User: Fold Peptide chain release factor 3 from Sphingomonas aurea.
Amino acid sequence: MTSPRRTFAIISHPDAGKTTLTEKLLYVGGAIHLAGEVKARGANRRAKSDWMKIEQQRGISVTSSVMTFEKDGVTFNLLDTPGHEDFSEDTYRTLTAVDSAVMVIDAARGIEAQTRKLFEVCRLRSVPIITFVNKVDREGRAPFELLDEIADILALDVAPMNWPIGMGGEFEGIMDLSSGRISRPEGDSRTFQGTSDVDPLSDRFAEEVELAQGGYAAFDETAYRNGDLTPVYFGSALKDFGPAELIAALAAYAPPPRPQPAEPAPVAPDTSEVTGFIFKVQANMDPQHRDRIAFMRLCSGTFKRGMKLTPTGHGKPIAVHSPILFFAQDREIADEAFPGDIIGIPNHGTLRVGDTLSERAAVRFTGLPNFAPEILRRVQLKDPTKTKQLRKALDDMAEEGVTQVFYPEIGSNWIIGVVGQLQLDVLLSRLDAEYKVAAGLEPAPFDTARWISAADPADLKAFTDLNRAAMAKDRDGNPVFLAKSSWEVGYVADRYPKVKFAATRER
Assistant:
């Protein structure tokens, strides 16, 4: 009998406190001694979920991290995602690999643009969400206002599971609505010290609690797992109000591994054949060893170290001798893994995002798209002798999904495509830090890109022959139309109705 799995992501708008909450969940789960410290091989080692140099400099998450820990017989696979919208592709792909999500909302700001976008991705995949309203120890909006906004904007039933007794300067603690116990701030730092009571409330707060219990839906596990209801927890990750309750809620309510969409049919976790898909590739987590790790979500079967799996990419079985379980950038060898687990497979460009791995190669998981870039740039190499290193670096980062690379039909300048400006900063930072390549960026003569296809190959050839100056290939050899503007895309699409112009391409 294997221990139950809970594979979940934490999503939020930037600065809602997601990384702080992540570290407190790890602390409560016993995976670290202090926020940012790893308990590994008997020694404390500094390792935050934000491990890239640019992340530490800017205080933001720009890549998804995977952290596995166990508490009370439940194995938790926590995926921390970038909050910044410029990295929405990485977040989208991460959400294909989880069974539930925790949505973090700032009590002062409520639902923000990126929160809403990420929620819509969860809704598309029917990922159930637990909401955590953070920073209630600071001045913020009224709890009723926040709950109504979640219900109205996200079209969800809300079920408050606890209630803040005052906010900001009047913050007196958090009441568990099912037991009536109140966790109170204590000590100089005003954190929660682990004691709670059932002292009577003042009339004002007693009335609030009564309205909260009577005015909103009661928690219903079926409605939550169907994505129709979100349980809401109020708290302060920084002051230790809420992380313990969140872990308990995930263990009690969040779904175990779910069937995954695939062709020819969805794959259930109790299928005996080992299957999984690659949702992320990360190079240079250990820059000294130039490593390349493919992150695989195990979907079915019991994986054993050393077994052979066949990737859809090239059909040749590969033996997985050194599978890895993660704690941020720290790792240990996994002798076995079960559905819901995330394992890392070291490789040298063999595995790519979107690849399915299976014992018999008779299945292909679906739903991991590429998005058309909205910013195109040419890379300007400062030292022409490093052309080979630049090509290697751009290929590596294109495999990871950090950027896209397009090779024009006419001319030799490679074009880099990204969804957001911050990705360009990451590109230049990593070129310098990991590949020792100094480079700059210059405007490209194009503004956006679309993948093209046609039912009749003759129609496609006719189009590409007439528009060679605007044609390129992506790194898989797929034809891409480079346009000077979104208006031009529409204009050309109207002129060539037999050619399909796609803003996404499934891997």
Remarks:
- Confidence is low (pLDDT under 50) at residues 35-52, 54-64.
- The longest strand covers residues 275-283.
